[in-house]
Specification:
It holds the Pfam family Arginase. An eight-stranded parallel beta sheet has the order 2-1-3-8-7-4-5-6, sandwiched between helices. Helix 4 packs parallel to helix 5 and helix 8 packs across helix 9. By secondary structure, the chain is an alpha/beta fold. Helix 6 links the parallel strand 4 and strand 5. It binds arginine and manganese (II) ion (2 copies). One manganese (II) ion binds next to loops.
Length: 352
């Protein structure tokens, strides 16, 4: 068992170093705001794009192949017209996530890392489902969040569906749901074994019960305090992807960051991740070479002052850049052909 794992890990390490060619990225906007009551979160994709997202990603590597797939649109389909108890705007969430799932699966099948811009976190149901479809189940999820988003319609105190996507995705929780009309496309197919939380600090009573009873890997802020972000991410990856062969999905709720770093979000909580920790964890995932999809959700440009919005959007872009290979230590150039700018002879001498 141990030996098999060792060989697999070594194999993946070699593969990673052989395939070091440019990344392919697909951007998907999901301007969905009905999973929670605050208006504005639907403008997240526009604000993140308008802050120069593509240009800044391109600055990481001019050869990176970036394609913007535009925004997801949906209409409420007839088979979802029924209401479900204590799930606000259920029919919108169900209809939107069906489209999201199809789009995400397509982008991943096009050979691209899928970057989904929310929108509120209920879209995580669609993005993770799409990733599962594209990779036939072989994925691992890091849910970076102040919240567990693990309520069912029976346990939620708010009825807001952005607090429920994890419970909808988990195989082990499928019996806790009533029949959900128009959600047959969504088979809860991820096992809780392959998901880990990082950053929790505002967890509801029932969510805590489920995490403990089912042994879900969950690192709260006090664990980050205790072990440091680097060890926490190593432990999380080890748990959800022990053979290092799964496609990794990072569902990044901007409220995982401290409310001072990312104030423009609907359910901000003090005492969260620093931007440094938030970036570092993304760099670690990028270094695995197995990042398959990222969601960046819950940026709400209607909350806070203009500078709050700027800081929040900028934090989101830093996290995205880290996920796509930006190095804070600066790029290491191996060959003269890789020099981004025309240089004069003395600099050439440093390389050769
Ligand atoms: N994606 C989020 N920001 N979720 C916040 C959820 C808050 C609370 N647990 C609820 O169920 O309503
Ligand atoms: Mn969330
Ligand atoms: Mn949250």
């Amino acid at each position: 068992m141990l030996k098999k794992r060792g060989i697999q890990v070594l194999f993946n390490c070699i593969k990673r170093n052989l395939h070091n060619d440019g990344l392919k990225v697909g951007i998907l906007g999901i301007p969905f705001d009905k999973g929670q009551p605050r208006i504005g979160v639907g403008n997240g994709p526009r604000f993140i794009r308008d802050a120069g997202l593509i240009k800044r990603i391109q600055s990481i590597d001019k050869n990176m192949d970036i394609k913007d797939y535009g925004d997801v649109s949906y209409t409420v389909s007839k088979d979802v017209s029924e209401e479900v108890e204590n799930m606000r705007e259920y029919e919108h969430m169900a209809s939107c996530c069906r489209e999201v799932s199809k789009n995400v699966a397509k982008i991943i099948n096009d050979g691209r890392i899928c970057l989904s811009l929310g929108g509120d976190h209920s879209i995580g149901l669609g993005t993770v489902d799409g990733h599962i479809q594209a990779k036939s189940d072989n994925i691992a999820v890091l849910w970076i969040d102040a919240h567990a988003d693990l309520n069912t319609n029976k346990t939620s105190a708010t009825g807001n569906v952005h607090g429920m996507p994890m419970a909808l995705l988990a195989k082990e929780l499928s019996d806790y749901w009533p029949y959900l009309p128009g959600m047959d496309w969504q088979k809860p197919m991820i096992s809780l074994r392959n998901i880990a939380y990082v950053g929790l600090r505002d967890v509801d009573v029932y969510e805590r019960l489920v995490i403990d009873k089912l042994g879900i890997t969950a690192f709260g802020i006090e664990d980050i305090e205790k072990y440091g972000i680097h060890s926490v991410i190593n432990m999380a990856l080890e748990k959800v992807d022990p053979y290092q062969n799964r496609s990794i999905h990072v569902s990044y709720d901007i409220d995982s960051l401290d409310a001072l770093e990312a104030p423009s979000t609907g359910t901000a909580v003090r005492g969260g991740l620093t931007l440094r920790e938030g970036i570092h964890l993304m760099e670690m995932v990028a270094n695995t070479g197995r990042l398959g999809a990222i969601d960046l959700v819950e940026v709400n440009p209607s909350i806070g002052s203009a500078s709050d919005v700027r800081n929040t959007v900028d934090a989101a872009i830093h996290i995205i850049m880290a996920s796509l290979g930006h190095k804070r230590q600066g790029l290491r150039i191996k060959k003269i052909q890789e020099m981004p700018l025309q240089t004069f002879p003395p600099t050439r001498d440093l390389i050769n």
